[in-house]
């Protein structure tokens, strides 16, 4: 009798273990899976639409019209990256065909030295392609691109210059977005064995902490440096509400940037920076309950002003990764936020109907509100970081 009772208890325990849901409810995982299924259908419609438009890549859908670009636009690598994340999800050969096609359309940017966005252009496209296929040609493109990006580094300033325009105002402008391009340099340092790539990236990251961030861990958008002294001479905004405001996508870039910088360097300062940025954005009094931020945290028009889904997607992707570097309490907080964000983004409020929205996945992003440019529209980088967040969630929950 005693043996029977013991066997019964063991059976109950085993049953409980087998039926215990993985981290993340099965309901939420079904949201993630459904989001992937829709995204693939929508993105294949996009791929077919631009297939015969030589050299063109989707940018947005504005005023009822498709807006595309050639590879020179800073967003050119995001749509190929969308396709790579979709291919990673279910290995659809049709998606692979288009991922290769649109990635090739960006290749000439490996020689670009007149802007800092080579990292976005190449690492999101060729970087993901290399990760998933091991194609040696992709590696060569990335190494050439890293060398091109490195030409924008001035040793006495210690940062990579962002823009070359507005020279009457800015001597050596560096925008918070530029933190994202360092990942290409860190990859190149490991791949080539040339430590100068890493030295540039670390210098840029350190000086950005010192000069871009305020005591509350919000960041300026643009800091221009004196080319002789290497010290800041202007701290401003270009796309935010004001020089002192917290432009939402800029805060998201910083969160994402210092998260991967910690992953790549294991420097605890970068982890603390990422955690402090997360605390600022997640606990900001103007952050909505669904965690899809307004385009700027400090615009006086809140709540009667556009949201920025792209900022939410960048934050979500960063928080999934950051949750793996922190204690259980913080990780739980981050993942609850991510779940709210993804559920909202995957809802009809933010996800387009099939074939609509210019065949972009998400609605309601904001590009340059002060210029009335790309306001409340789909953006290719919103779709990219949305799919990256979904990919990271699947990997996290399926361990």
TrEMBL record:
Active site: 117 (nucleophile), 177 (proton donor)
Gene Ontology process terms (BP): polysaccharide catabolic process
Residues reported to bind substrate: 117, 177, 237, 249, 253
Alphabetized PROSITE patterns for the sequence: PROKAR_LIPOPROTEIN
InterPro entries cross-referenced by the UniProt entry: 6-hairpin_glycosidase_sf, 6hp_glycosidase-like_sf, Glyco_hydro_88, UG_Glycosaminoglycan_Hydrolase
UniProt keyword terms in alphabetical order: Hydrolase
GO MF, one example: chondroitin hydrolase activity
PANTHER family tied to this protein: HYDROLASE, PUTATIVE (AFU_ORTHOLOGUE AFUA_7G05090)-RELATED
Family: Belongs to the glycosyl hydrolase 88 family.
Protein name: Glycosyl Hydrolase Family 88
Species this protein is from: uncultured Dysgonomonas sp
């Amino acid at each position: 009798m005693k043996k029977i009772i013991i066997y019964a208890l063991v059976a109950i325990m085993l049953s409980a273990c087998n039926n215990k849901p993985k981290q993340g409810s099965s309901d939420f995982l079904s949201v993630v899976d459904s989001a992937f299924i829709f995204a693939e259908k929508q993105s294949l419609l996009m791929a077919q639409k631009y297939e015969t438009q030589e050299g063109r890549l989707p940018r947005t859908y504005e005023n009822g019209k498709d807006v595309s670009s050639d590879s020179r636009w800073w967003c050119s690598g995001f749509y190929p990256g969308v396709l790579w994340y979709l291919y990673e999800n279910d290995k659809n050969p049709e998606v692979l065909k288009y991922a290769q096609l649109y990635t090739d359309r960006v290749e000439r940017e490996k020689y670009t030295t007149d802007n800092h966005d080579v990292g976005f252009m190449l690492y999101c496209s060729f970087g993901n392609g290399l990760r998933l296929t091991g194609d040696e040609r992709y590696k060569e493109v990335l190494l050439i691109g890293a060398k091109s990006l490195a030409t924008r580094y001035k040793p006495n300033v210690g940062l990579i210059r962002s823009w070359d325009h507005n020279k009457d105002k800015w001597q050596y402008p560096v925008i918070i977005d530029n933190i994202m391009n360092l990942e290409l340099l860190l990859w190149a340092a490991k791949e080539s064995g040339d430590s100068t790539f890493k030295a540039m990236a670390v210098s840029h990251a350190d000086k950005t902490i010192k000069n871009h961030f305020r005591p509350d861990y919000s960041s300026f958008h643009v800091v221009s440096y004196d080319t002789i002294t290497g010290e800041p001479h202007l701290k401003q905004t270009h796309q935010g509400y004001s020089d002192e405001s917290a432009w939402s996508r800029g805060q998201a870039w910083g969160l994402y940037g210092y998260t991967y910088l910690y992953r790549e360097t294991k420097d605890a300062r970068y982890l603390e920076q990422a955690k402090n940025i997360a605390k600022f954005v997640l606990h900001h009094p103007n952050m909505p309950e669904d965690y899809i931020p307004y385009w700027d945290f400090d615009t006086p028009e809140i709540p009667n002003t556009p949201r920025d889904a792209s900022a939410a997607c960048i934050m979500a992707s960063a928080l999934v990764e950051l949750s793996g570097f922190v204690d259980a309490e913080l990780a739980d907080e981050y993942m609850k936020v991510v779940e709210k964000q993804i559920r909202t983004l995957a809802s009809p409020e933010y996800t387009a109907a099939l074939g609509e929205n210019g065949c972009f996945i998400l609605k309601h992003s904001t590009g340059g509100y002060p210029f009335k440019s790309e306001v409340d529209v789909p953006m290719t980088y919103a779709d990219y970081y949305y799919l990256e967040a979904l990919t990271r969630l699947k990997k996290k929950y399926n361990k």
